Amino acid sequence: MPTGLSNTTPRHIASSQWSLLLICWLVAFVATLGSLFFSEVMKLEPCVLCWYQRIAMFPLVPILAIGLYSQDSGGIKYAVPLAGAGWLAAFYHWLLYSGYIPKGLQPCGKGPSCAEVSLELGGLVTIPMLSLVSFTIIIILLLIAAKTGRSR
Fold first, then answer.
1. DSSP assignments along 58-109, one per residue
2. pLDDT tens-digit readout, 57-87
3. Is the pLDDT of residue 89 over 70?
4. Secondary structure letter of residue 7 according to DSSP
5. For the segment 14-27, what is each residue's pLDDT rounded down to a tens digit?
6. If we measure between CA atoms, which residue out of 70, 89, 79 comes closest to residue 24?
7. Total domain count, the chain
8. Span of the secretion signal (predicted)?
């Protein structure tokens, strides 16, 4: 094969890497469904930071699905920056929600407050925490999958 074509050929996924990406896809899919459930079924209007997290989470579902279907690990390079941006927004939101950041520093203007506690399960689990955990799991598994692909 000519050397100029080697950069354009798909990077086929090993079974362990495929499994990691499948778990990432499942987490992103469940997080997307959960987000839509909170807003459409429970009628909790998303704040500005929730929208930023949605902007980062929702595209992960098709990006990871396409990579899984085509057996191409190239989607990892697109998923990691999205998940990282979502993680930063979720972490800032969690800090604001938890009271570590003063409410005067919240980015919300019109609409619901980013610091308002609208749902708390068991006195501990909040919507920003669910988002933060989802992005954390996705990032860790994506990095492991990337490392697994390089070591082959």
1. TTHHHHHHHHHHHTBGGGHHHHHHHHHHHHHHHHHHHHHHHTSS-GGG----
2. 999 999 999 999 988 888 899 999 999 999 9
3. yes
4. T
5. 788 989 999 999 99
6. 79
7. 1
8. none
Residue 38 tokens, joined: 């909170």
Query: What tokens does 5 get?
Result: 């074509």
Question: Tokens 């920003």 map to which residue?
Answer: 128
- The span from the CA of 68 to the CA of 75, in Å, is 9
CATH of the domain at 98: 1.20.1550
Is 10 contained in some domain?
A: no
The most confident of the ranges 8-17, 49-58, 124-133 is: 49-58
The first and second tokens of residue 115, run together, are: 């610091």
Q: Is residue 83 part of a domain?
A: yes
**Does residue 40 lie within any of the structural domains?**
yes
Q: Which domain holds residue 81?
A: 25-103+111-150
Query: With 0-12 CB in 10 A as exposed, 13-18 as middle and 19+ as buried, what is 85?
Result: middle
**Residue whose entry in the numeric block shows the structure tokens 């979502």:** 86
Distance (Å, rounded) from C-alpha 150 to C-alpha 138?
A: 18
**56 falls within a domain:** yes
Per the structure block, which two tokens stand in for 87?
A: 């993680």
